[in-house]
Amino acid sequence: MADTVSVVIVGAGFAGLAMANELLRAGISDFVILEKADRAGGVWRENTYPGAACDVPSPYYSFSYAPKPDWTRRYAGQAQIESYLIDIASDLGERIRYGLEVTDAWFEESDGLWNVRTADGGAIRARIFVPATGQLSRPAMPDIEGRERFEGASFHSAQWRHDCDLRGRRVAVIGAGASAIQFVPRIQPQVAQLTLFQRSAPYILPKPDGEYRSIHHRAFRRLPLLQKLERGLWWTLGEVWTLGITGNRRISAAVEAAARWQLRRQVGSAALRHKLTPDYPIGCKRVLFANDYYPTLTRPNVEVVTERITEITTGGVRTADGVEHAVDVIIYGTGFATQEFLGPMTVRGRAGRELRAVWADGAHAHLGMTVPGFPNMFLMYGPNTNLGTGSIIYMLERQARYIRQAVEVSARNPGGLMEIREEVEQRYDEEIQRRLAGSAWAGCVSWYRSASGRISSNWPGSVSEYSRRTATLSLADFHTTAVPLLD
């Protein structure tokens, strides 16, 4: 007989830990987290490429109730963020069960429980099912002919081969996104030749990074308000930039001018500047931050190729102009399968209906958390909750607060079910898609969109708006069974 708990959470990254801590802070302890790896960390455990760091300042990219006064830099590196998450997870003790990868979950209508099965054949049952696997957990490999034919070393940046010595090698980097702008400057001094294959140029802003010294650490410990003030500053800047993405042309023009100024200042060659100039509205794709990326691309051993890749050969990369670029190593900086929410899990709701089928034309959920036909299931970092600016941690804390209210309702009414009304979810989704159609994200093809063209990733407003809209769970939005209204 499988164990039964009130809540099962899948994933021990920022999302899962945010949910667990919200429950504990409310005095709710009957939950478990199922984590496939041997430690917490999520994306910050998996991405260990050289230069991996956050592009949100650390005081803002951390839990509001767990500030860290001794960050070494304003933009913390991967190892320090992972360490932060491991410290947070250590307070949860045996509530986290490591080494358990969830393969499928299904809602059993006869008893109103979720059955969650793991790869080792085990199972657990829960009143409430909270997938917290995020949007950036599965590396995406490009669909390029001949990938398997390449005779050299090749790997995705999220699965970095630390045993692959790049010194003196000819290296191809396919992709020029958020990961590439961090690892390219780190590997360029080691390699004989670096060929960057860029499909579209990103907008890149100066990165206001800086070292936190011991004097800062002492000040943050003695006067926590100082770190809160810095957090508040970055929160405010994020809210302002959101206005630019969602329609304020003066703000977007100012940010674009800053990006173009950096490009002119750091790249002297007009031909290279032309290659590195975006051809889409700013904000449509992720805006990046770096001080050393452009200068790296001007080095003698670096070439930027914008011709379309037609195939991978046994010895290199062939482009549409017929040129075969001979390389020894290929690194894919091609991002993540952002539209495969919850993959590779199979999730079935009422009548055995698969969530994958419900989301065939693009994922959608009320407030990014609840889906009709899937009672007592609440998503963390679900559809349309990603941000073009700001900290996703802020969003996760608000989602955890909302879901915690559902857990409290369930605790007062054992056996009760909550299922979002279809008309509520549909009305919300229509609003979100209408607003997204008028945003910068509608101006190009990006990882924010599904194959159907639907923008399934991003939230179209400010984080303060999301906070307001998720502050109170309204049971009127749900079909309920044996559940009274909240007091």
TrEMBL record:
InterPro entries: FAD-bind_Monooxygenase_sf, FAD/NAD-bd_sf. It comes from the Bacteria. This is Cation diffusion facilitator CzcD-associated flavoprotein CzcO. PANTHER family: FAD_NAD(P)-BINDING DOMAIN-CONTAINING PROTEIN-RELATED, L-ORNITHINE N(5)-MONOOXYGENASE-RELATED.
